[in-house]
Amino acid sequence: MLGFGVTAKVRDAVIRLESNGLSAEKTDLGVVPLINFKFERRLGNRATFLLEGDALAAPQGRAEDVFAGIVVDTGRHWSIKAGYRFLEGGADNDEVYTFAAVHYVAAGVVFRF
Predict the structure, then answer these.
(1) Which residues contact 75 (CB under 8 A, 6 or more apart)?
(2) Phi-psi region of 44 (alpha: psi -120 to 50; beta: other; left: phi over 0)
(3) What angle do CA 61, 63, 65 make, to 5 degrees?
């Protein structure tokens, strides 16, 4: 199965610096449009490979949240999933330059109704 869509990410960002009693802060609240994608491929009767995420890049910055893993059906409505997740993003403009990347193992339970 292959799917595409649009996600609206609401971002509430704060950059704060403090040193020797001095401080400065920059805040920003905004909506970031992202492209949503999903790819599923059956690996057998109970297992499915899953690649899904939200991502978009522009000259002002980028955002990615991508999961790749295996989903195993454990019952009629229940599944478990485990895999790798990558979360990255930031901004590069006249006011700020900031990026972060997080890699982690993810696991979860899926209930379908």
Answers:
(1) none
(2) left
(3) 170
